TrEMBL record:
It comes from Bacteroides intestinalis. GO terms for biological process: glucan catabolic process. SUPFAM superfamilies: (Trans)glycosidases, Beta-D-glucan exohydrolase, C-terminal domain. Its main location: periplasm. It comes from the Bacteria. It catalyses: Hydrolysis of terminal, non-reducing beta-D-glucosyl residues with release of beta-D-glucose. Keywords: Glycosidase, Hydrolase, Periplasm, Signal. Residues 1-19 form the signal peptide. One of its GO terms (molecular function) is beta-glucosidase activity. This is Periplasmic beta-glucosidase. Gene3D superfamilies: Glycoside hydrolase family 3 C-terminal domain, Glycoside hydrolase, family 3, N-terminal domain, Immunoglobulins. Its EC number is 3.2.1.21.
Length: 773
């Protein structure tokens, strides 16, 4: 083994603001304008810019604002921005108060959680990531920005880029999964989609907001808002890159997280918000809190309300979302000398800069064109984009060959022929809101077609589609209440035995069963952690009863997170995981079930066999006592479950098969300034054309610190016609070999590496190379 010397390549310095930098003359004009404006502002008006209140039309946290007083607060100059005010007419009316009735006529910003579409729902973010198609993800964000901006929204609280290795955490649904390299690519694509070209020249470009900074995806025990504690090395090597990537892509705003980072809540964490984000990464935009999180600070036990509010400002928090803490406490704190005016000025300037950059001082009604919704909501084009994205996001987990007639050779159950009687069974089969997933606030939640409707349209007169509900979606009424927190959900009031009997009767006369089951829309998302990741008990019972009929079953699985579907994997011939696909769910499901679209999605988070394996992730380290095969005494493992995942990161099947050649490297040595090409030839050996996500992983064989066994360092989604081959090349530069060492220097070290290429994080072919000094 080559003795390694550290090559210090580059510290991550001030690359951040590149994409959002303005031309110097424009920046000078902005500074002059804002300086003049601020010279006229009172202390209260400046603090008003830092105060964000809710419009209350959408509920995303505990409300503090008093809706009746909203206009009065705006008129007095006491509000700088709003969230959750829904509807362009309402936004227009509120903006009118700000620019026609307040003393300095400063326009408001209107923010909302536009997470996976606005009126046209796209698949949930975890599903979008499963497409591994950055163009598709950018299109989703662009389409969402166009629709949201037509409704008065000029700021989305997205992308959420929190890495998580814990599917108990309900918010796994909002991010891109467990890998920082992929997460960074997704972050960049989304920022580009929302913000468009630098300059916000059009009224469809809106401010993006990367969140939740930082490490929100690593709560102890997977419990939302729980303690986070990790080493700086883990932070820098595994968790921080996607936020940094968003900053590099020019994201205009950052939302801090509810959790603590190094024992200090992110909201009041100066190291995080100032040293790292602004100084090291060069972020120039504004930082806002998560929902009322300044009010959480005393509960974290770091001081009284006044001192913690001041600490949040000192840390670099510009906007207080809905806590009213800045509003109530800062004026007095400035007057009594506890807070220097310069700190208020700094934060106020950043808010005004965001408004200036959007062009709101020139035209405060830029996003208030009341004629746009009719033209731009839920259009044919947007729906087609959503349908395409949905089909591409589905992950085919299993597709066994079966035959019910020994005289007929077995063949994969999917795709289905459009013939015979197709029984759709399960509560997700005829439920519209269930298609949408969490974090979606359209005007009409009954807009999506049901699975039954989609399949009927697809088969026309060629086949019969029948439906039975089969079971309740939840184990109990109490569970349902917790999930829907008072919101309405569709319930079947018949006795459970009657619901099941009807389903078995329907199944008896069918040629194939499509079991539409899984999590309900609100079972993942905020404050929706789970300690058991099985299908809800009534759904398991239904599946077992259906399996006893001997009919072939396709499980069409709805979920916002990885699930421990061991029984289902072992006992059902086909499983198509569709996540929450959005408004076009029904049509996209039909596209894939009948083979008009060949599935190509791949998992971006590991699926565990058991909750006890969590945290589980593909890019782990070897340990000194790795277990090669289950079970070996005195090796790192469990008595009752192997270390293998149920489905690994990067996994997903197709209706065709792909065969990988060995990995060819164009050289076996590389210098830090040089590069290598790693190539494979992928052959489509089946009968259908298809897309394949070819994945490159790298392992640093021996370094100054322990490195993961493999890390994703490249991926390409390629289209390969049946019978044809495609050569796929990956360029390996020293950038891909860098990591943060014990001194938190970003380095690559000479020595041996493995380049591994394959169809998922487990089935890989490998070649060796050496980085020389
Ligand atoms: C969530 C954020 C969201 C905010 C505003 C909070 O509860 O954590 O993700 O952006 O509410 O709705």
């Amino acid at each position: 083994m080559i003795k390694k010397l550290t090559i210090l390549i580059l510290l991550a310095i001030s690359v951040g603001a590149m994409a959002q930098q303005m031309p110097a003359d424009k920046e000078a004009r902005m500074e002059k304008f804002i300086t003049e404006l601020m010279s006229k502002m009172t202390l209260e008006e400046k603090i008003g810019q830092l105060h964000q209140i809710s419009g209350g039309d959408v509920v995303s946290g505990e409300l503090s604002s008093d809706g009746n007083k909203t206009a009065q607060q705006i008129r007095s100059g006491g509000v700088g921005s709003m969230l959750n005010a829904k509807g362009v007419e309402k936004v227009y009316a509120l903006q009118k108060v700000a620019v026609e009735q307040s003393r300095l006529k400063i326009p408001l910003l209107f923010g909302m959680d536009v997470i996976h579409g606005y009126e046209t729902a796209f698949p949930v973010p975890l599903a979008m990531a499963s497409t591994w198609n950055m163009k598709q993800i950018e299109t989703m964000a662009r389409t969402a920005a166009v629709e949201a901006s037509a409704d008065g929204v000029c700021w989305t609280f997205s992308p959420m880029v929190d890495i998580t290795r814990d599917p108990r955490w309900g918010r796994i649904v909002e991010g891109a999964g467990e890998d920082p390299f992929l997460g960074g690519a997704v972050a960049k694509a989304m920022v580009k989609g929302y913000q468009g070209e630098p300059g916000f020249a059009t009224n469809t470009q809106i401010l993006a907001c990367v969140k939740h900074f930082a490490l929100y995806g690593a709560p102890d025990a997977g419990r939302d808002y729980s303690t986070v504690d990790m080493s700086r090395l883990r932070m820098f090597n595994d968790y921080l890159y996607p936020y940094q990537a968003a900053v590099e892509a020019g994201v205009a705003t950052v939302m801090s997280s509810f959790n603590e980072v190094d024992n200090v809540p992110a909201t009041a964490n100066k190291w995080l918000l100032d040293d790292l984000l602004r100084k090291q990464w060069g972020f120039k935009g504004l930082v806002l809190t998560d929902y009322a999180s300044i009010n959480d600070l005393p509960r974290h036990g770091i001081g009284d309300p006044v001192s913690t509010t001041i600490r949040a400002l000192e840390a670099g928090t510009d906007i207080d979302m809905e806590a009213y803490a800045y509003h109530y406490m800062l004026p007095e704190a400035v007057r009594n000398g506890r807070v220097p005016m310069a700190l208020i000025d700094k934060a106020c300037r950043r808010v005004l800069e965001a408004k200036y950059q959007l062009g709101l001082f020139e035209n405060p009604y830029k996003y208030c064109d009341v004629t746009r919704p009719a033209k731009e909501f839920f259009t044919k084009e947007n729906r087609a984009k959503s349908r395409q994205a949905a089909g591409e996001s589905f992950v085919l987990l299993k597709n066994d060959s079966i035959t019910l007639n020994p005289a007929v050779p077995a063949k994969p159950l999917l795709p289905l022929a459009k013939q015979g009687t197709i029984a759709v069974i399960g509560p997700h089969g005829n439920n519209r809101p269930m298609m949408l997933g969490p974090w979606f606030y359209p005007h009409d939640i009954q807009r999506a077609a049901t699975v039954v409707e989609g399949l009927k349209e697809a088969v026309g007169s060629k086949a019969k589609v029948v439906f039975a509900r089969g079971c309740q979606p939840f184990e109990s009424e109490e569970y349902a209440q917790r999930v829907y927190f008072g919101k309405e959900f569709e319930k079947d009031n018949r006795p459970d035995t009657e619901i099941l009997a009807e389903a078995l009767n329907v199944a008896k006369n069918a040629d194939v069963i499509i079991a539409t089951l899984g999590e309900s829309t609100e079972m993942s998302g905020e404050s929706s952690s789970r300690s058991i990741l099985d299908l809800p008990k009534p759904q398991q019972d239904l599946l077992k009863a259906l399996a006893e009929t001997g009919k072939p079953i396709v499980l069409v699985l709805f979920t916002g997170r990885p699930l421990t579907i061991n029984w289902e994997k072992a006992n059902l011939p086909a499983i198509l995981n569709v996540w929450f696909p959005g408004t076009e769910a029904a049509y996209a499901i039909a596209d894939v079930l009948f083979g008009d679209v060949n599935p190509s999605g791949k998992l971006t988070a590991t699926w565990p066999q058991s909750v006890g394996q969590i945290p589980i992730y593909y890019n782990g380290k070897n340990t000194g006592k790795p277990m090669d095969k289950w079970f070996q005494k005195f090796r790192s493992g469990y008595l009752d479950v192997s270390n293998e995942p149920l489905y690994p990161f990067g996994y997903g099947l197709s209706y065709t098969n792909f065969e990988y050649s060995d990995v060819i490297l164009n050289d076996s040595v590389m210098s830090p300034k040089g590069q290598l090409t790693a190539s494979v030839t992928v052959k489509n050996t089946g009968k259908r054309d298809g897309y394949e996500v070819v994945q490159l992983y790298i392992c640093d064989k021996a370094a100054s610190i322990i490195r993961p066994l493999k890390e994703l360092k490249g991926f390409q989604k390629v289209f390969i016609k049946a019978g044809q081959s495609v050569k796929v090349d990956f360029q390996i530069t020293s950038d891909l070999l860098k990591f943060y060492n014990s001194d938190l220097e970003y380095v690559c070290e000479p020595g041996d590496f493995d380049a591994m290429i394959g169809c998922n994080s487990v089935e890989l072919k490998s070649a060796k190379f050496t980085l020389v000094e």
